Amino acid sequence: MNAWNLGSVVTMKNMFENAVNFNSAVNGWDVSSVTNFYNMFGGSGLGDQDLNAWVFTSASDMTGMLQYTSFNGNIASWDLSGGANKYGMFKYNSHFNQDINGWSSIGGTKTRMWDVRRPR
Questions:
Q1: pLDDT per residue over 25-77, tens digit each?
Q2: pTM to 2 decimals?
């Protein structure tokens, strides 16, 4: 699975939603062409993988991407300055405690990433 060619993939919406036994290596994926990460791992058993090498140059929607998971992997180098919607990205994920202070200017959306309310 880690060697999948994802060069033409543009959406991973709900791809592993509620796959509670999922914890395959995905750190080698090239996700730079993916635009939609909506709820990609929501409710899955993703675990604590190091996804630091993922590049989000095309991302437009990351809403709920890691919600309802126990994900606590390294993502310190992610550059999320492209303006993708990150609302509720970590909703109901009480395990995540990695340092993301170095993330490129994501503005006020950083605090909304843990929000459980829908934006108005």
A1: 999 999 999 999 999 999 999 989 999 999 998 999 999 999 999 999 999 99
A2: 0.88
How far is the first Cα of the chain from the last one, in angstroms, to the nearest whole number? 38
Q: How far apart are CA 73 and CA 50, in angstroms?
A: 5
DSSP 27-39: TT---TT--B-TT
Average the pLDDT over 76-82 and give the result: 85
Would you say 59 and 81 are in contact if contact means Cβ atoms under 8 Å apart?
Answer: no
* Per-residue pLDDT at 101: 82
Q: Rounded to whole angstroms, how far apart are CA atoms 91 and 106?
A: 17
CB contact at 8 A, 102 and 74 = no
For the chain, strand residue ranges (E) read none
CA–CA dist 61, 47 (Å, integer): 22
Site of tokens 């990433």: 113
Cα–Cα distance list, 67 to 13, 78, 112 (Å) = 13, 17, 13
Q: Is 61 helix (H, G, I), strand (E, B) or coil?
A: strand
